[in-house]
């Protein structure tokens, strides 16, 4: 589960990062099973605070979902409809 959080965070951060500016802005989000932090150094005109928050919320929502074949308190997650 932690690797999923880190992978999601890294992908989101990489998509938002631009190394030309030095003013970093960060948005964080968390659930009971995951947390995400998204940082960008892009100006507010390129990535608004709302977009930054949305990226953090999307990352934590994705990371909070059980992955196919993972164990949950209810047992193994069932296959998705497309895999049946």
Please, could you describe this protein's structure?
- This protein is of the alpha+beta class and 84 residues long.
- Helix content is 37%, strand content 19%.
- It is built from two helices and four strands.
- The strands form two sheets. The protein has a two-stranded antiparallel sheet.
- Helix 1 packs antiparallel against helix 2.
- The longest helix has 16 residues.
- The chain is elongated.
- The two termini are 24 Å apart.
- The model has no long low-confidence stretch (mean pLDDT 77).
Overall pLDDT level:
77
Q: Tell how many strands the DSSP assignment holds.
A: 4
Q: Helical segment tally?
A: 2
Largest sheet, in brief, is: 2 strands, antiparallel
State the order of secondary-structure elements, H for helix, E for strand: HEEHEE
Shape: elongated
- Could you say which structural class the secondary elements and strand pairing correspond to? alpha+beta
Q: How far apart lie the N and C ends?
A: 24 Å
Helix percentage:
25-40%
């Amino acid at each position: 589960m932690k690797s999923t959080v880190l992978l999601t965070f890294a992908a989101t951060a990489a998509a938002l990062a631009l190394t030309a500016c030095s003013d970093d802005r960060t948005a964080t989000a968390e659930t009971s099973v995951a947390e995400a932090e998204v940082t960008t150094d892009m100006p507010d005109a390129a990535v608004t605070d709302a977009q930054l928050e949305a990226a953090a919320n999307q990352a934590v929502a994705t990371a909070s979902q059980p992955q196919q074949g993972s164990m949950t308190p209810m047992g193994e997650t069932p296959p998705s409809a497309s895999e049946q």
